[in-house]
Task: inverse folding
């Protein structure tokens, strides 16, 4: 977690304000004042409070975050690399089902003979998420790594035999695809708000624990929606697939936007 140059995330107001002005302003607010729902200022404040233990309401954080991002539809619209990688992942899994893993690797021009499972999956990450030019690209690549780790666990359970993927069932297909969606949403949120974890956590372990709690909350919430979607039945080569995936993302973000 973290980088040498901390990205402070999106802002609501003039970036020319003095350093520290935002924190001082927030501290001066009357604690009984009405929540400015949907602003980046409020979102950062509640994340900071969550990290320090002042509040423990994860749904409040996610609701503010989605609102501040422009709502569910806008969040889905800006997930360009995420949707593209999600579609590529769906095409890869669908090809395994229809053609088998070996023919799929050959069609992707991936040399598999003599390579470890780890090496093959590493190559697949760059096939499914080829770009690393923007923060959005990196978020999508991280989500791809997490999704393929689900495949690795499946292969590991089957004696590290890559051919075990030929017997992949619908549950594994949907689990891998769902993993991508939930991890993308989490990684995107973390990308926007990680500076809060780095700044307000007592130490790195506390930051990691708090990140993990939010990751699990997002996964549980998103899976409620995704369990109703037969991701394995979608045609990932259909010209309208991007619109279909976008609608799925909208509905997943809408789940997080509802305050509980």
Result:
């Amino acid at each position: 977690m973290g980088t040498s140059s901390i990205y402070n995330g999106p802002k609501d107001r003039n970036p020319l304000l003095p350093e520290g002005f935002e924190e001082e302003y927030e501290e001066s607010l009357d604690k009984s004042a009405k929540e400015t729902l949907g602003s980046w200022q409020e979102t950062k404040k509640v994340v900071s409070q969550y990290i320090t233990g002042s509040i423990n309401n994860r749904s409040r954080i996610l609701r503010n975050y989605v609102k501040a991002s422009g709502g569910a539809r806008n969040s889905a619209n800006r997930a360009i690399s995420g949707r593209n990688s999600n579609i590529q992942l769906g095409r890869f899994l669908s090809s395994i089902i229809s053609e088998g893993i070996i023919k799929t690797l050959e069609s992707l021009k991936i040399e598999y003979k003599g390579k470890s499972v780890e090496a093959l999956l590493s190559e697949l990450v760059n096939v499914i998420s080829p770009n690393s030019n923007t923060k959005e690209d990196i978020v999508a690549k991280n989500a791809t790594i997490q999704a393929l780790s689900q495949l690795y666990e499946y292969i590991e359970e089957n004696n590290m035999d890559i051919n075990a993927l030929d017997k992949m069932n619908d549950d594994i297909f949907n689990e891998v695809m769902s993993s991508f969606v939930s991890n993308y949403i989490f990684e995107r949120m973390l990308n926007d708000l990680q500076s809060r974890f780095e700044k307000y956590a007592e130490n790195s372990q506390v930051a990691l624990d708090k990140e993990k709690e939010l990751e699990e909350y997002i996964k549980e919430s998103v899976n409620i929606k995704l369990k109703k979607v037969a991701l394995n039945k979608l045609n990932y080569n259909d010209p309208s697939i991007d619109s279909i995936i976008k609608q799925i993302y909208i509905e997943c973000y809408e789940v997080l936007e509802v305050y509980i």
In short: Confidence is low (pLDDT under 50) at residues 1-7, 13-35. The radius of gyration is 20 Å.
